[in-house]
Specification:
CATH superfamily of the largest domain: Aldolase class I
Number of strands: 13
Shape: elongated
Number of helices: 13
CATH architecture of the largest domain: Alpha-Beta Barrel
Helix content: 25-40%
CATH topology of the largest domain: TIM Barrel
Bound molecules: S-adenosyl-L-homocysteine, iron/sulfur cluster
Distance between the termini: 58 Å
Strand order of the largest sheet: 3-4-5-6-9-10-11-12-13
CATH class of the largest domain: Alpha Beta
Strand content: 15-25%
Radius of gyration: 27 Å
Order of helices and strands: EHHEHHHEEEEEEHEHEHEHHEHEHH
Structural class: alpha/beta
Length: about 450
């Protein structure tokens, strides 16, 4: 950037530094900038921070820096997807705040974004006007576009969110789950794994969602529910489950960053104990997940034997049950207070016999666990049927007698295709048929 030394008040000025502090008093990082400025090199870093600092001494010379030629990035990064350290670094690198004020300023901005949910830098009233303008110049807080919003009879809400052209995923809010409300978020658009009972698995992977795109799903739900500021009392959205589209452990870096952001108690404030990550069983990643996130763990088990699990969850051929169970037993923080959840989809005549239930009890013996029995949600062309109710109850009774809580998950939001395993795929189908309809009416 070009530096001009002009009389104070010049129309070229974006900022002016009357009585600039002496070089010796500048913090080290700023001294570097000052040196570059004196040498005619790049300047930007501390300018915006310094503009509003009360100045102690009056220097007869006015030093005026022209920022009018600052290059605005082609795509402005969204600050919502940055962890605290990333946010600090981004603000400093863009020259929007001074390195010595980075922690304090980033904390203020963090609170506006994640506690108050603002989407406009102008709303950040404790940030000086010039700083807000600089932030808007370099960054955005825009939410992704909501393509559709549906509400089911039972109160479940489903949003189809467009993150970029052709990149859409669904998010589902399930209210009133034992006094709390769970948001089911997607971690990928599509999935590479082909679990044979899951409609999402019949789609290819479009791409991983970024940390910002995962966080945006929580923000959109809070916008809709009117839950800003994100104060903990009386809110409906209390829990987050990574049980939407995709395999979270194939996108662990972004999931871990998103978890850091969502669980921050000066922001969205959803504690790690209320965030559950569900995996189809990427055994080698479990340790990392626990170490990096402290999230609650859910394992999509669905079968107590390798021959059957190989058919239902093909990933089992890579990480067989014994390897998966060893990784579960070693999951960091596992205890009676922090039990693992085994998910078990009830497929008629496939995995729902009393013998299967007893084999399951033997398999999980000694692990602090509960088992969620999920009635199979049908989708067009699915090669399975849902188990009969008496079979599900008999299965649950065997687990209960062995001391395992085994709630039967009530299917929610089926009338808007928001239940487990129904996400995205149906949306595509609806949209494809809508396209056909539109094409037909064009031809008519
Ligand atoms: N990929 C991760 C998380 C997303 S799937 C995983 O597999 O765990 C979320 C849950 O929905 C998983 O337990 C999955 O097994 C279950 N599920 C998928 N399709 C289903 C269907 N048609 N009916 C009921 N549950 C289903
Ligand atoms: Fe992917 Fe999970 Fe569906 Fe399996 S159940 S295909 S891992 S989303």
């Amino acid at each position: 950037m070009l530096v001009l030394v002009l009389p104070q008040g010049s129309p070229h000025c974006r900022a002016s530094l009357a009585g600039a502090p002496s070089h010796a008093k500048l913090p080290p990082a700023v001294r570097g900038e000052e040196r570059r400025r004196r040498g005619g090199g790049k300047v930007s870093r501390y300018l915006l921070e310094t503009v509003h600092r009360p100045l102690q001494r009056t220097n007869p010379l006015s030093v005026t820096l022209d920022l009018s030629r600052a290059v605005r990035p082609a795509v402005r990064p969204n600050l919502s997807g940055l962890t605290r350290p990333q946010l600090r670094a981004a603000l400093v690198d863009a020259g929007a705040i001074a390195p010595d004020k980075a922690k304090m300023r980033a904390s203020q901005i963090w609170r506006w974004i994640h506690y108050f949910g603002v989407t406009d830098f102008e709303a950040m009233t404790n940030i000086a006007k010039e700083h807000r303008a600089a932030l808007a110049e370099h960054f955005t807080l825009a939410r992704p576009k909501i393509t559709s919003r549906q509400q089911a009879k039972d109160g479940v809400i489903k949003w189809l969110i467009e993150f970029a052209s052709g990149v859409e995923a669904e998010t589902v809010f399930i209210p009133d789950v034992a006094g709390s409300g769970a948001l089911c978020v997607s971690s990928q658009v599509g999935c590479t794994l082909n679990c044979t009972f899951c409609h999402t698995g019949t789609q290819g992977l479009v791409r991983n969602l970024t940390a910002g795109e995962i966080v945006a799903q929580v923000q959109i739900a809070r916008d809709d529910l009117g839950e800003w500021p994100a104060a903990p009392d009386g809110r409906k959205l209390t829990n987050v489950v990574f049980m939407g589209m995709g395999e979270p452990l194939y996108n662990l870096d972004n999931v871990a960053d998103a978890l850091d952001i969502i669980s921050d108690n000066e922001g969205l404030g959803i504690s790690r104990r209320r965030i559950t990550v569900s995996t189809s069983g990427v055994a080698p990643q479990l340790h990392d997940l626990g170490e990096r996130t402290g999230a609650m763990l859910a394992i999509s088990l669905h079968a107590p034997r390798d021959d059957l699990r190989d058919r239902l969850v093909p990933l089992n051929k890579k990480y067989p049950i014994a390897e998966l169970m060893a990784a579960v037993r070693a999951y960091p923080g596992l205890s009676n207070a922090r039990r693992v959840t085994f998910e078990y989809v009830m497929l008629k005549g496939v995995n729902d016999s009393p013998a299967d239930a007893k084999a399951l009890v033997r398999l999980i013996s000694g692990i602090p666990a509960k088992v969620n029995l999920i009635p199979f949600n049908l989708w067009p062309g699915a090669p399975y049927e849902c188990s009969d109710w008496p079979a599900i109850e008999a299965f649950a009774a065997i687990l209960n007698r062995a001391g395992y809580a085994s709630p039967i998950r009530t299917p929610r939001g089926r009338d808007i295709l928001a239940a487990c395993g129904q996400l995205k795929s149906e949306s595509e189908k609806v949209r494809a048929s809508a396209r056909r309809k539109a094409a037909a009416s064009d031809e008519a």
